[in-house]
Amino acid sequence: QVQLVESGGGLVQAGGSLRLSCAASGRTFSSYAMGWFRQAPGKEREFVAGINWSGGRTYYADSVKGRFTISRDNAKNTVYLQMNSLKPEDTAVYYCSKVAGISPLGASWGQGTQVTVSS
Asked: Strands, E, within the chain: which ranges?
């Protein structure tokens, strides 16, 4: 079973940037699509961005399109989320997961990484 560890969150002012990382264990990382999700207090977890196994196709939620960029380095078993022009409404705990489209795969989540955007 693949284990995922998210990092890179923090406190940033509106308009700032952060780069999140998700390190995966296991030798089959490059075989599957990956995605980022987020959950704000009192809200359901939502899809943010996805990337196919090779990195050749990416897709985004409308709320982050043009501001966030997902990428992956299969040699490092890592997927990234570059977040620019951050807004207070981006404040949430961010998680990564294997995905099928915009749906997460797997029964459990990692600890996530907190992103807080101040106005």
From this structure: 4-7, 10-13, 18-24, 34-39, 46-51, 58-60, 68-73, 78-83, 92-100, 103-104, 113-118
Q: Is 49 helix (H, G, I), strand (E, B) or coil?
A: strand
If we measure between CA atoms, which residue out of 82, 96, 70 comes closest to residue 12? 82
Tokens read off for 34: 């990956």
pLDDT score at 27 = 74
- Say which residue the tokens 């943010």 belong to: 48
DSSP secondary-structure letter at 76?
A: T
Mean pLDDT for back-to-back runs of 10 residues, the chain (119 residues): 91 98 87 95 96 96 98 96 98 96 87 97
Block residue for tokens 């090779």: 54
What is the pLDDT at residue 86?
A: 98
Tokens of 80: 């990234």
